[in-house]
Amino acid sequence: MQRRRFLQGALGGGIASSLIGCAKTSKPVNHALPFSTAELPLQTPSLAPINAYADRIISTNVCTRPFRPQGPRTEVEQSGNKTLIHNYGHGGSGWSLSWGSAALAESLIQADKQTPVAVVGCGAIGLTTAIQCQRAGYNVTIYAKERPPYVRSSYATGIWSPDSRIVTLDHAKAFADRWQWMARLSYLRFQTLLGLAGTPVEWTTMFRMADKPFDDHGGHNIPGEPPYPNYRQALLSDLNPKARDLPADKNPFATSYVRQFPLLMFNISAYSQHLLDVFHRGGGRIVNRTLSGIDDFKQFDETVIVNCTGYGAKALLNDESIIPVRGQTCKLMPQPEVKYGLQYFDQHTSVYPRRDGLLVQAGAEGDFNNPLANIDPQESVNAVAQLAKIMQSMQR
Ligand SMILES: Cc1cc2nc3c(=O)[nH]c(=O)nc-3n(C[C@H](O)[C@H](O)[C@H](O)COP(=O)(O)OP(=O)(O)OC[C@H]3O[C@@H](n4cnc5c(N)ncnc54)[C@H](O)[C@@H]3O)c2cc1C
Fold first, then answer.
1. Is 165 in the pocket of ligand 1 (CB under 6 A)?
2. Ligand 1 midpoint to CA 85 (Å)
3. Ligand 1 within 6 A of CB of 89
4. Does the CB atom of residue 122 touch ligand 1 within 6 A?
5. Ligand 1 atom 16: the closest Cα is on which residue?
6. Mind listing the pLDDT tens digit for each residue in 92-109?
7. Element of type H or E holding 353
8. How much distance in Å is there from the Cα of 255 to the middle of ligand 1?
9. CA-CA distance, 373 to 303, in Å (whole number)?
C-alpha cells in the first residue's frame, strides 16, 4: 500500500502500475519504445581538442562515497516522540538515484500535511528529499552543517551512474526492485530538468576506450573492491540509449576498442543552485546546525525528521556499515567547445565536459575503505598527463 502511494504519486498512474507489476514479479518490465530497427550511419561529433595541461587545473577535490554493502538505508526509526526517516548511504550513485530515493523516503511519512518536516542534510539527497516533501504538501526546514558548494555532493563527477558502488553482488537480489524504482523514477525526473536556464542537466556524448573487448555480461569488477551488480544492463536496458562500438575507420582514438554512447550529465554548480532556488521558492528555510549524536535529534521542534547526512551518518549514528570510498577529481578550465567526454578505465582516467570546468577523474587502487580526504596533487597531474597522451594520438 505504502509502495503503491509512493509510485503513483511520483510517477503517475500508467508507469506506476507497471512498476508495481514489476515489483510483484520481481522481473524488469520492458518499457521499450518502438525504436526503428534501421541502422543509421554512425555519426561522431567533431572532437575539439581538450587542453590537457596541468597548469589549467583550476581546482582539485577529494570526497568519500558513503557506500553500504546492503544498499542505502531508507527506513523509519521511532525514537520517543520523533519519527526518524533515514535516507543515506548512496555510494557512487547519490545524484543519480536522488529523486527516487527522495520519493521513497517521503512515502514513509505517515503524518498529516500540517506536520512540519525537518530534513537534516543539504547535499544531493537532502535537497531532493526536501523538495519532494514540499511537493507532497509539507512545510520543510533543512538543517545542515554545510550547504552547496561545500557539501560532499558538490565534489562528485556529475554523471548518470545509478549502479555505481550502490550495493555488493551478495546483496544485489534483495535490493534489485527498490533500485529499479529509484532509478526509473529519477531518470524520468531528470528528463524534466533538460533545457533549463543554466543547463543544470544535459545529455552529452561519451567515448569509452578499452585495451580489450568490452565484456557486457559480468558485474563491475574493480581491483581491491567487492564485485558489484551490473543493474543497468540487467534492469534498465530499455532506458539506456543505445551504445555503438566504433568500427576501425571511424575510430579516432589509439585503442582498438571504443564505444560511443550518450550520457546524462549534471552540471553540479548550476544544478545545486537550481535545487536551492526551487526549495526556497517553495517556502523552504535552511538553518545551520551541527548534530553530534543521535540524541541531538530530540532537540528538534519537528516530530518528523528525515536524516540525509550521507557519509556524516557514520559518525552521527555510529553506523559502521558505511564504508568510505575515496575519489579525487580536478577541473580543467572550462572549454565550451568540447562537447564530448572520455572514459579510459584501463588507465584510471576519465573526463566529462561539464560547463563549470572539464571534470577529470583520476581513480586509484586503494580508494575502497579509504577515509582519507587529503588531496594528492600528483594523482590529478598524472590523470591530466594521461589525457594529454590521448589528445596527442587522437585523429581529427
Ligand atoms: C569522486 C566522487 C564522484 C562521484 N560521482 C558521482 C556521479 O557522477 N553520479 C552520482 O550519482 N553520484 C556520484 N557520487 C556519489 C555522490 O556524490 C554521493 O552518493 C552523494 O553526494 C551523497 O549525497 P548526500 O546528500 O547523501 O551526502 P552529502 O553531500 O555528504 O550531504 C550530507 C549533508 O549532511 C550534512 N551533515 C552530515 N553530518 C552532519 C551532522 N553531524 N550534523 C549536521 N549536518 C550534517 C552535511 O553538512 C551535508 O549537508 C560520487 C562520489 C564521489 C566521492
1. no
2. 17
3. no
4. yes
5. 94
6. 999 999 999 999 999 999
7. none
8. 34
9. 34
Could you please report the per-residue DSSP string of 243-311? PEEPPGGG--SSSSEEEEEEEEEE-HHHHHHHHHHHHHHTT-EEEE----SGGGGGG-S-SEEEE--TT
Q: How far is the CA of 190 from the centre of ligand 1 (A)?
A: 18
The three cell numbers of residue 184 are 526509473
pLDDT at site 310: 98
Give the residue extent of every domain in the chain: 1-31, 54-393
- Residue 35, pLDDT score: 56
Please give the grid coordinates belonging to residue 16: 506506476
Supply the residue whose CA is at minimum distance from atom 38 of ligand 1.
312
Q: Is the CB of 341 under 6 A from ligand 1?
A: no
